[in-house]
Amino acid sequence: MQSIGVNYDTGLRYEGRSTRDRFDAASVRFDMTVIAHELHAPAVRVVGTELDRLEVAGEAALAAGMDLWFSPMPMNLEPSAFIAFLTDCAARAETLRQSGRGDVVLVLGCELSVFCKGFVPGETTGERLALMGDPATWTDPAKLMELQAGLERWGEVQEQLASAARGAFGGRITYAAGMWEDVNWELFDIVSVDAYRDAANAATFAGELAARSKWGKPVVATEFGCCAYRGAADRGGSGWMIVDRGVDPPVINGSYERDEEEQVEYLSELVEEFHRIELAAAFWFSFAGFELPHRPGDPRHDLDLSAYGLVAVGDDGQWRPKKVFGKLAELNAGRR
């Protein structure tokens, strides 16, 4: 496996809030320079719901000398609406590809079965995520039948989505799948999965990823990572669910011990696993939790505990590297 890429959030807007309120081109260009030259990342996956922001970040990534994984993220849309949205994104990605400054891969959404409507039961993303995380969903026959029917509908939409995208984009396409999603990878050029190891799947994690090589295409972890508190590695992709947003301002919903070494160990272990099973590439999630400020003197409001970032962001928007930043830079420098 080559060096590790990085996910970069340009802002997801859903359910009345954004994962990134402050956004300016100069800051983005600075961040991309850091990712390219200090973290030695060969590629960056740019994620967001606002197309203008995606283009700004995509141009900055290519200018910094990295390959670009252009990853628009529709939220809470019906299938016809998100296909139209992603087709528009494909045209913009093609403009970036035509610049000839680096390889551009189009990622046609992320875990759409839960982040958009029409598949997993629930009106909001929060409701759908709660249902997926409820053990009763997987043991109650009626609930499981309803869920399976919804995921089958997602399978039927994939062909429409891939066809529409190929009509506007001439490069390679993929889709950032959840590990529970059944994807017809014949439609795509790269097999991509958001690969979070946790206590529940640790025994089968590597085998599940390795099995995706059966398609004879490159296999990529579009996301992997954990938060920076003791025990976060065992929670993997659900480690962020420690914030109570029912109060204003939001608070951490329990007592958690900050432990930046948790991220370092998780990174080291998974990179070794990815190398062993010969993944083509992997992207750490993520560069920063821009709206999850680090407040070292106020543990109840230190929302960075719920962030996966390589850097910790202050209330003023300035960031500092976490320990995992240095480890990723070291690993990448050794693979150059």
Short summary of the structure?
By secondary structure, the protein is of the alpha/beta class.
Describe the structure.
- With 336 residues, the protein is an alpha/beta fold.
- The chain has a single domain, classed as Glycosidases (TIM Barrel, Alpha-Beta Barrel).
- It is built from 10 helices and 14 strands.
- It has helices at residues 25-37, 51-63, 79-98, 112-115, 125-133, 141-166, 205-211, 232-235, 261-276, 323-334; strands at residues 5-9, 13-14, 17-18, 43-48, 67-72, 104-110, 173-177, 191-194, 219-224, 243-244, 251-252, 281-284, 311-313, 319-321.
- It has an 8-stranded parallel β-barrel, surrounded by 5 helices. Strands 2-3 form a two-stranded antiparallel ribbon. A two-stranded antiparallel sheet has the order 10-11.
- It is globular, with a radius of gyration of 19 Å.
- The relative contact order is 0.13.
